[in-house]
Amino acid sequence: MFDLFIELFSYSFLQRAFLVGIIVALCSALLGVSLVLKRYSMIGDGLSHVGFGSLSIAMALNLAPLKVSIPVVVVSAFLLLRISENSKIRGDAAIAIISSSSIAIGVLITSLTTGMNTDVYNFLFGSILAMSREDVVLSMALSAVVLLLFIFFYHKIFAVTFDENFARATGTNAGLYNMLIALLTAVTIVVGMRIMGSLLISSLIIFPALSAMRIFRSFRGVVFTAAVVSVICFVCGMVISYGFDTPAGASIVAVNLAVFLICCLLGMIPRGEEA
């Protein structure tokens, strides 16, 4: 096993994939707890589809994918919140509209320009070869900003997550913090999409939070456990992907699924109240 890790880290593209993947897994897990508790889980899925549409546009115009995707996905995240909060369209319907429309636009643009080539396949299902040095630097910087903002506003995010009405009553600007959660989610989705793919990146947000919730009840316990589970699942998925020559994104999701099922079984064991 030790020799396998030595071999893994001898490749520069795998070093880049591990660097970005671990920090993205950490950010996804931290945000995922709030999104799952607020029933915004599908926002990650919707934004990843928007990311595919924007990547297709970037590829058609021969522009840097991340520099096009980040502003488009961030604007879409704000739009999703505004539609779900201030219109007659419910949140899940708004996500479905934007998600399916983005996929359709991306497929149309791809068909009319480059066609369904390997790059498009990588955008959909992810590729550890997709990260350039410039992407790694940008991704690490953005992920660090996401982590710092989450830590700095942890108590406000906790208040808005558990009881938004009470938070508003105590003077907290819940709308602002909902926007912050959407902004951090959008950035995390775009950064992680290169490795996981637009169809699988939302699993990093949903699975670790749900796995942790099977075992722990406190917000802090769930957040900490979700972060640990997410990073371990990412590393195990990458090792399996390398060892068995399977797609990285799908391998990571499969490990997350296995851990979730194990946590479901552990959650069935009777225990005393968590302190």
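[next item in queue]
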Amino acid sequence: MDNRPQWGSRAGFIMAAVGSAIGLGNIWRFPAVAYENGGGAFFFPYLFALLTAGIPLLIMEFTIGHKYRGSAPLSYARLSKKYEWLGWWQVAISFVISTYYAVIIAWAMSFAGFSFNLKWGDDPNGFLFGEYLKLAETPGDVGGIVPGVFIPLVIVWAVTLGILFKGIKKGIEIANKIFIPVLVVLFLIIVVRALTLDGAIAGLDAFFKPNWEMIADPKVWVAAYGQIFFSLSIGFAIMVTYSSYLPKKTDLTNSAFITGFANSGFELLAGIGVFAALGFMAAQQGVGINEVVSSGVGLAFVVFPQIINEFPALNGLFGSFFFICLTLAGLTSLISIVETFVAGVQDKFNVSRNKAVLVGGGLSAVISILFATQGGLYFLDAADYFINQFGVALAGLVQVVIVGWVLKELKNLQNHADAVSDIRLGSWWKICLTAITPIVLGYMMIQNIITNIKENYEGYPTSFLLYSGWGVAIGAIILGFVFMAIKKNDTQSKLRIPADKEVSQ
């Protein structure tokens, strides 16, 4: 009999999966990527990438978790015990991401408070890097702990671990059912307000105006696949773990389509809101849109405070709404990331959920203090870049090659998905996973390796990147094999797939 916890309903699972997929990247990465890669024309390769890589991979991960009913390491071990390391590698990637992701949420939480009196003043850039982060001068210098970051970081971890202690149904499911609707409503308010600002139409024109000539550029297609891949929480154990908590009768394929399109819908909404606001800022400064477009930390914590400064009314309220949105989007993703190693530890070492949360989450929380120091931003930037480019993307590539080509398991997975889903998978699904996805991810990987050999990321010293970037990405792979090598007495009994589950509501 399977004693694994379950979602209270399929809607609860979808809400949690959507909450995991909708993260900081939807708000601060997608708008700039679309603008720089053809504007309105970018949506064609983006939709193609969603249908040929994003959703097929989501279906595959949902099916692996549902069929083998375990954390990512246990599910891959049940698939073939030689490949347990793949699950642990993905869990290690999640662990690394959780350590710095929590710190960015802490920044957003701080800025939600700063918004009420526009604490960043007339120089948000100087405020962020100087007064708030107290950034060290040299990459690699740790410096002291920054209290303004450390205190909200403690709150972020208290909320995250508190939700995880409550479990799947009473913790993660309820939290997502509250956070996601609040996030969508607040963000809609921001978008509607942004659309009424002077210059908003010019911003939207810049965002949607298609540059069809760029469609022929392979880099645009790689950017589209990269955006889909990095924004759907695929390739690092989350969706395998979440779907392992589904009851036996659950429509997997339909759930994957809903999750994929909900994530893309929020990205489009973010693009509209961000470019309407950027159009307003460009109009206020009398410059072109291209001079104010930004992404990542710069967009969220420098450009948006500048926009908020120039809002005609209720600056503090809309500023706090924006940073609360970032906080909620980050928290729902962080919860899913931490759940991967909580489940992995629980399955491997036969410990209670509370112990797994305390040990796994607690260790990540302690390590995250490194990113709350004066040198934290440098470590965060390097770890984020390398664990995404040579962790998530590489693990995703290895995953489809092993499942599709080495183990040839796609037919079995297709049969399982078809048995519980309304939409039956055709040959398109296997073609996407055995040909299109490996080719695109392989091309991306080769390009990334060439780029990073030619020049150091962001011009950082090689000695710094060796341990903070390359070392982190390679260390995650090594950890995968180390955890696989740990033998437990009941390994054989664990590899048996548990019996029936109940039917979802």
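[queue empty]
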